[in-house]
# Entry
Amino acid sequence: MSEFRVMIGEESFAYLRKNNYYYVDKTGFLNDFLPLSARVSLITRPRRFGKTLFMSMLTEFFDIDRKSRDLFAGLKVSANKELCAQWMNQYPVVFFSLKDVDGDSFSDALNELQRVFSSVVMEHDSLLTSNAVDTADREVLTRIKHNRATVSELRSFLMILTRAMRYQHCKPAIVLLDEYDVPVAKAEANGYYDEMIDFMRGFLSSALKTNSSNLLFAVLTGCLRITRESIFSGLNNLKCYDISDCDYADTFGFTQEEVDRLLAEAGLSSKREEVREWYDGYRFGDNQEIYCPWSIMNYVADHRTAQPAPKAYWLHSSDNALVRRLVANSTTDLTPSIDILLEGGTLLTKINHTPGYKNLASTPANIWSLLYLTGYLTKVPQDANYALPGTDALTIPNKEIREIFCEDLREWFSHRLQSPQRSELHEAFWKPDADRFAKLLSDILLVSISVFDYREHFYHGVLTGIFLSTNTYTISNLETGEGRSDILVWEGDKAAVIEVKRARNEEELPALLDMGIRQIADNHYDARFRANPAIHTIFHWSMAFCRKSVLARVVLAVQR
# Structure
């Protein structure tokens, strides 16, 4: 166990293997992928499912400028001696990622693209002095290296680079392009969508469509397949694999067998059920059970030396701004369905596998498709028989994603509050004035949101968002005393424990208030506050909701 090593966030296959860090073997992909079935393969997966590390592995395997046999020793592909002899380190490879290409304008984004392309040229700068490479191509690559290229030259970069590689090595090149769709997603968010689509269409078509003598094959990864915008216009040699396809369903993400082995080697087999509850539940292909690698590796790293509560590692690990914006801007249509999902229910819809980025919010089905393709939702098992003919049954995969949905709702609600509303709520809460706080909150629910059947979790999220928006130190669902409190808040020398209840009808509200007050006291939810000498005043708040109605009760528990 002392030799077991986990590296979080490392995307270099060579670094992990050379330094004896844990690596979940995905090299079996090569046995299935070779011989080639398509000149260009596009594989789409949610963020943080191991795409970049996977592409790094492919680079080490194919690249003619590397000696990688030792890196693959003991891995699945190494058993295929014939394949390794034919393919390992036999072809020129260009590998780069567009995941960091961003900008407030198209000009800014082009500068970022130029920076990425310049780095690629530096990695292959022997091309700049090779007599085998055409002089004109060397001049263009030199200008790209020094950030002096024209837009036209940037658009032709990949085609020119692969041609130069073929001239130098007398072999066609392999192109590995990671997160190809990020520039388009950023452009959609920042208002230069059409310009970026036009650039990417020329950039990809010149390298992948009319470049057969210089290109052996290409593998692209991304989050969405953006063919609706004709970014791959006329590309007849393209094969796409998204999370619904059975091919390579176990290549990205961890299978149950892989997670079990990882937990055993980390000495955490006793945590198997907790890990399943929090991070399992994705289904790729027909019914391949998959875990998110980012969450599993973070969980293992955190739990080898301590025993913290599970958490949503995926929440702030990548840019999900598009998803957040669509959900926030479509609340009237989406809130009842989100409520069903958060309660563990299913949503019937027809998945659009090419929703594109433009006009995504035109139909709710497009939004549900986006949430499915980006990892927020997953299909229920086929044998559950939820779906009707022509529809797919979607659900939230696990506790981690449920936490993320709630967090998005909190942020949305806190942004909807106006400054005077925040001040009034803050004043009524700490005064404390339970009737006024309940009245103010009821007024906000009445005019700000469309609510018919929200459950307790939503009101919990609303309250957390309110306190976060007033810069009050706020913790949700923390283990304290003899259980898990709903919300803990404190400010200066004052603190409060909040218990949230939801009633089926308004007649139940008073009894639920009593239940909440008793629950706080009986379970000693304020134990952390009582143990802190800097806290002089502790309130117990019970709040009960029924649709847009609120009742609240407050007890002064400690005054010292």
